[in-house]
């Protein structure tokens, strides 16, 4: 880890200005990912701008009945928030399924969305990686990839986005607000992550120097009946090999509204639009749910060792939707 | 179940009664200091730099730029390091692993081989400089893949014969009504103790002092003295508290490089391994590929048993993971063949890891027995009881005690085995399929020569000094109880000091032999001290000290098969749609000799069983196929069981008494893992009807197996199920 | 914000276990290394240095965190509690006492982190936080009973390689029970005081 400068920002404009002053500067939130990456040498910033004391630590109800979540709200506070727990239970469940109690107390909402992949090639500076070192190659494609992406990947990068929180936020149409030296902006989370293509090192649509300030959720609606299920290689404290955030509103046996997103299987928190299209208006039941999963997974491009993720996700979707439908019926 | 099984002469009060750890208060308050935590004035920090190529030669070490970095004091490498003596046999009867004898030449025999030590004033400076150090290499092609029929494999001895054979194996297999022929694999496993290896070395008045985290201070003292050509008396090694060892904490690169640097700089130098470095520097359990062939009559009685195990080792050091050894103790057959083979690859040197041999070997043989029970339609416990040998199947020697049937009887009663429906795949709880499984366990009960000093102090209390190591086993407490009973006093009047090579030669904490060996020495010294005290009523101010040495007594011990035994039981839930497996409960009943401290002994046994769960379901160090280097060598990539993976585990014991044994203690550190992974895997079969012969049973393997027919069951002509 | 002594180090004050410590610190120094290498508070352990084992768990502003991923310079102005600050003089914290009595450890190296984590788990649960194994996370459902499954999940950020989880769960369960009992006493006492 090389030596670096450190400054603590107290307001958003100041934070953005500090970052703009140094091209090798990074924002420091909870540090759970950045400090680790600095230790492994993946990140070598010259300056850290600590944003944890910015006044962005509140979860507030918006005028339209949605939620506005400050970027420095910790994962723990987000998961424990009564409005989140009642209006968006899958979001609470997703956050609680991630990392550990200690890390959730440190990690922030803004940082969670910007965390980097846990691909072992990315984290090892002695190995090639197109995401870390553009053009150097992707050893995962021909190497160890049993936990890599089956959706949204390319021959240049098959890494998965590790977030759980982001999966629920993606399902619920979250919008990311940010501040730049040129003023504020916003982008829906479904457009926040860029397609991998041949530029896996370009990960988000954030303009250079932007600071995430808030993540907004529309009024709860269908999200109030939602669920997050995560499968991993041990019972806790591990990244997903597959996860599903789902919400369902059923009337007269028909699916009126559906929200579905996948985690642990794609280059980004994966909104399952194709599956939602199959679900909406269809009769609630196992066949519909399976058809929805198949519609989404038709785009899957598994590698030799991660093909199991396709049936895994299919079963997970059916299982979670069935649970929601049965809950609705009660 | 009674929990005490004292030898006839031993019951005095302390032994057999639960006692909290004598150092417990220090451990729960943070006062206990481990190796990297003893302060020294003028301490400098060393950081190892490891090879980034898998095989080749070092072309250059570009030290100039690094020496100019802030705080950097020196860079040690093969071009400037002192030459070491590696031509010796150490206390444990084996030569040193060249991985520890750092910087002796330009060869790189594997990725992660130590190539330099950067020493600086602060750890931050040392780390940055070590990362900045440019080392160039001439790369050579490598072979890092362990495959079953590797042409380089050869039989190798280790601490037991490479191969044993009796009877006509092929003939008995041909005559068998039922044959099981199956291959099993276990992956590379990492010790992953939570305290990384750490050592501080300094010269103090012409004497080398090393504060270290190791499993035997006199062992490391001897190795360092030989390696640096020093007199043993001029080397002192201390290791007060050890944050886990499991076989890995021996002589390694950190102590040797710290001594080199302390010598070069003439100031204290501390070297601590990073978690990532531990994956190539700290040893590991070799992956194994095993084949078991069992031939039996319809009633399950074995006619033929063959167990073949192959493991990998490095090109610089031969280490055998003797997976086939357990069959030499557990089961007899008219034809009996076992073999341990090894192949040298361009990989780091493996080493002992909790139940070396028995842990992977029992997974294979105990899984195969379960398959045999299934084919014969015989209950798995009954099958094992029908194959109980009278004497050592290979040695022909009598067993000192063999209470395996008692373990199974008691375990079956408590687990509710009698109600078990043998059919696989028929029990469901929501999305979960449920199953139960069992397996047998055994582990050798040995002892190593040890010395102890016991002092009657003038104030009426007693002091014991012995170079024992408490790596978490509770040895310090157990030895306090042993000493109290041997001295006919109470534990609060006995102070046991351990972890200092100045206390004289002693067995290491390893092979489940530590407490047995040390207790023997303490009991001997205490006995003689009591005789002396009977003759000398007045104790002088310096106290009266008696020293014991068990070398002769151990040599005089009658030759017998001495082992602990156990019966493992597991209940699992499997979701075949997601591949998730949860162990719902586990029970282990053991015959492990005299139990000194039920509180810590139970913890040891449960800990071993917890390792069994972790081995069965989680642990696997992965290598990138192309480079042969580790993929994600850290605790996020290498999964050990978390709290949430471990259910309420029960461990208990049956009386296990050998009137001819002077100590009666067998050790409980390793028996708990033996058979545990097989019990889990057998339960997974019972839940799902699918055999998993490759560990760990990860979700992807459950899902893949669910969609692929079992090759052994689909191809009986391969010997899979030749039910005649 | 502390005055920078150079562009890459700062003079800071850390508030640890109620005591203020002034030191000049390399910005690279983690809170964990500051405790262990600079302040001789070695009760906080370094297991992985990557946030993957929990051995370095301390409380910052009463919340458990891993000190290996906290930079010391960023911890200025916060209240830090380490294992050394858990006992009241000679009287062990109930969590410490339970770990000692029930043998909730073996080698002891993960133990300070386990204990700091357990203290926080009991507080988090008392504050009504759900966990990943809580069936109904809705706020009206109230805090779930602190069952062994709840304790296991909440304690899963602390690896114990010796495999002492079974007794760790027992220890946390016992300490949580003691906490509940004394909390009721405290409430009653507080109510009496308020009434008087």
TrEMBL record, chain A:
Residue ranges constituting the FAD-binding PCMH-type domain according to the UniProt record: 1-222
UniProt key word Amino-acid biosynthesis: no
Keyword field contains Repeat: no
Stored InterPro entries: CO_DH_flav_C, CO_DH_flav_C_dom_sf, Diverse_Substr_Oxidored, FAD-bd_PCMH, FAD-bd_PCMH-like_sf, FAD-bd_PCMH_sub1, FAD-bd_PCMH_sub2, Mopterin_DH_FAD-bd
UniProtKB keywords: Oxidoreductase
SUPFAM superfamilies (alphabetical): CO dehydrogenase flavoprotein C-terminal domain-like, FAD-binding/transporter-associated domain-like
Pfam families from the UniProt entry: CO_deh_flav_C, FAD_binding_5
SMART domains: CO_deh_flav_C
PANTHER family: OXIDOREDUCTASE (PTHR42659:SF1), XANTHINE DEHYDROGENASE SUBUNIT C-RELATED (PTHR42659)
Protein name as annotated: Oxidoreductase
UniProtKB/TrEMBL annotation, chain B:
Signal sequence residues: none
Domain Aldehyde oxidase/xanthine dehydrogenase a/b hammerhead: 29-141
Record key words, sorted: Molybdenum, Oxidoreductase
Region (Disordered): 704-724
InterPro entries: Ald_Oxase/Xan_DH_a/b (IPR000674), Ald_Oxase/Xan_DH_a/b_sf (IPR036856), Ald_Oxase/xanthine_DH-like (IPR016208), AldOxase/xan_DH_MoCoBD1 (IPR008274), AldOxase/xan_DH_MoCoBD2 (IPR046867), AldOxase/xan_DH_Mopterin-bd_sf (IPR037165)
Full protein name: Oxidoreductase
Source organism of the structure: Streptomyces camponoticapitis
UniProtKB/TrEMBL annotation, chain C:
Alphabetically ordered keywords of this record: Iron, Metal-binding, Oxidoreductase
Domain of life from the UniProt record: Bacteria
Gene3D superfamilies in UniProt: 3.10.20.30, [2Fe-2S]-binding domain
Every 2Fe-2S ferredoxin-type domain range: 10-86
SUPFAM superfamilies tied to this protein: 2Fe-2S ferredoxin-like (SSF54292), CO dehydrogenase ISP C-domain like (SSF47741)
Protein's recorded name: Oxidoreductase
ATP-binding is among the record's keywords: no
UniProt source species: Streptomyces camponoticapitis
CDD domains cross-referenced by the UniProt entry: fer2 (cd00207)
Keyword Metal-binding assigned: yes
